[in-house]
Amino acid sequence: MLWKHKDLLGIEGLKKEEIELVIETAISMKEILKRTIKKVPTLRGKTICTLFYEPSTRTRSSFELAAKYLSADTMSISVSVSSVQKGESLLDTVKTLEAMGIDALIVRHSSSGVPYLLANNLKCSVINAGDGMHEHPTQALLDVYTVFEKKKRIDNLKIAIIGDIMHSRVARSNIYAWRILGNSINVCGPSTLIPPGIEDLGVKISYNLDDAIEDADIIYILRLQLERQKKGLFPSLREYHLLFGITPERLKKAKSDVLVMHPGPMNRGVEISSEVADSIHSVINEQVTNGVAVRMALLYLLLGGGKIDETSHS
Length: 314
Prior knowledge:
By secondary structure, this protein is an alpha/beta fold. The chain is about 35% helix and about 15% strand. The chain has helices at about 15-35, 60-70, 90-100, 115-120, 135-150, 170-180, 210-215, 235-245, 250, 275, 285-305, and strands at about 45-50, 75-80, 105-110, 125-130, 160, 185-190, 205, 220, 260.
């Protein structure tokens, strides 16, 4: 199967076979990460630009490393020192970058839909690195890959997504991905952090954490997006931890081989205890590593690189 999309804007609309193609390609990319010299000439001659309107450590660094390991040239635009500060529009900024010859633009923006706007106005590939409260597709794909690596399957799983569902683009992309692959999903959190109509996406809603994680194969913990909350939506962080924090005692409700996942950054002692974050059930560090492999796979598929197993140096 060939990847036929110019862009990656979201998980919604992807086919099961397309998600499986990304996972299959990421397996080969993970092998490159295990080598002493982590570099192949697959995307030599390609130029990839990251344009982030929101702070990011993991996603931005992960994309840049993925591009470098495939020998692409990279450029990173800092909005705080760009012509945006002089009043230049977003479209004029990206068209200027495209005129310089970039092959792919990776964008993060606080407004939902921005990657779609850019994709409709640019000839180069656009990758959504997170848009508002809408989607974060590469995070969902790296999560699926991590589960495949650990469980050897990505279907017929019981998944509990816990926390701030309302403000999480990661939750939406994960829900789309896991539903496409044929899994059951419980979402759980304070009623003020569960968006109206979320059940229309095919998930069950629970306000009781013990019920939500009972016999779960995967517990996916979300960070409280306090920066996106315009008013207090729960009494206190202490109460949130008591009701919805994942602790070793709570973990006993899930299956004995449950995987604990978190997209980061973590608030230890709030949504997750340190004991759980550092436990044998946690695959949080593996998620970070696999993020590079999955983003290498996506850049390869979108930009039509050469043979994955090329080993010679440029």
